[in-house]
Amino acid sequence: MSNNTSGRRRFLRDAGAAFAGAQLAMMGLADASVNKLAAATLPSVQRGTHTPFASIKQINAGLLNVGYAEAGPVDGPAVILLHGWPYDIYSFVDVAPILAAEGYRVIVPYMRGFGSTTFLSSSTLRNCQQSVCALDVVALMDALNIKKAVIGAFDLGARSADSIAVLWPERCNALVSVSGYLIGSPAANKAPLPPQYEHAFWYQYYFATENGLAGYTKYLHDFNKFIWQLSSPKWNFSDMTYDRTAVAFNNPDHVAIVIHNYRWRIGIANGESKYDDLEARLAERPPISVPTITLEGDANGAIHLPPPAYRARFNGKYEQRTITGGIGHNLPQEAPQAFAQAIVDADHL
User: Fold this and answer.
1) How many domains does the chain have?
2) Residue 206: domain span
3) Residue 28: inside a domain
4) Are 294 and 180 in contact (CB under 8 A)?
C-alpha cells in the first residue's frame, strides 16, 4: 500500500471518529472518553516476510551521527522503535511496514555502538548508562523535528523508552515495553539475587572481567549468536537472519559500549557526573504515567520479572499481554503482528 493511500485511510478513519463524536455531543451523549476510534485490527504477517529496509539514513543528533531506517509518510504520527543487545534495527523489519501502512511515520535507529551510528567526537566517553541512551533518542527526535512519538522497544531499548516516559513524558504519546519496567540503578543492582537469577546474568559477570572483554572481542559473532539461542530457545532462526544483524556488531565502538553498559549496571564502571541528576531521578524508580502496553513472550529465555511484579510501576492507562506460540526475547522480530498491534492499540488507549 502506498504512503498516500495509507495516509488517506487513516485520515478518513479519524475524520469519521471526529464526526461521530460531534454527533454524540449534539445529542448530549458524548463522553470525555469518546475521543479516539477503536484501533483497527492489523493484518497478519509472517516473520521474515520483509528482508531489507529501503535505505539507511544518517543524521547528526546530540553526540552521535545516527543511522536509522524510516518508513511511512513524513507527516504521519511518529513511532520510534528501539532495539537492544545483541540485536539491531532488523528486529523491526516486519513491524515497520505494518505501521507505515497504517499511516505512521516509523523511525528505527541504530543505538550507540551498533550499525552505522557513530560518535561525532573521539573524545566522548563510550558511555552506555541509561540516561545517556535515553538522551540519544530525545536528541534524534529533535533532529528530526518530532515533538512526540509512540515509543516501542525491547531489551536495552525498553530501558531507554521507559526512561524517556519518566523523564520527558511530554515527548511520549504512548509506550510499548517488552518485559515491562526496566529502569534501575547501580546501587539497586548491587543487591544479591536468588541463585537462579544470578545464573541467568552470567554474561554480566563475565563482562566484568578482563577475560570477558577479551573473549567478547575475540568471539563476538558466536557469542551474540549464543545469546540469541538462549534468549529465544524456541525460535529456529536461520544463519542468514542472524548474520544480517551481526553486521551491526562491527561498529568500532560496539565492544566498548556493551562492556560499559554491563559494568556500569553493577557499579564497577563510572558514568559521567553531568548525568547524575537524571540518574538520581531514575534511581527512585518513579511510576510511568503515559499510556502503556507491556508485552512478554511465553518462551522468553532472558532474565525477566513476571508482569505482576512491575504492575505498580505503571499508573496511567495500562494493558499487559503475553504473546504465545513459543515467542522469545526478540519479540518484535518473532511476533511482528502482535508487536505492531500493541503500538496501534497503545496509541488509542
Assistant:
1) 1
2) 38-347
3) no
4) yes
Return the CATH number at 112: 3.40.50.1820
Q: How confident is the model at residue 299 (pLDDT cuts 50, 70, 90)?
A: very high
173-204 confidence digits (pLDDT tens): 999 999 999 999 999 999 999 998 899 999 99
Specify if 127 maps to a domain. yes
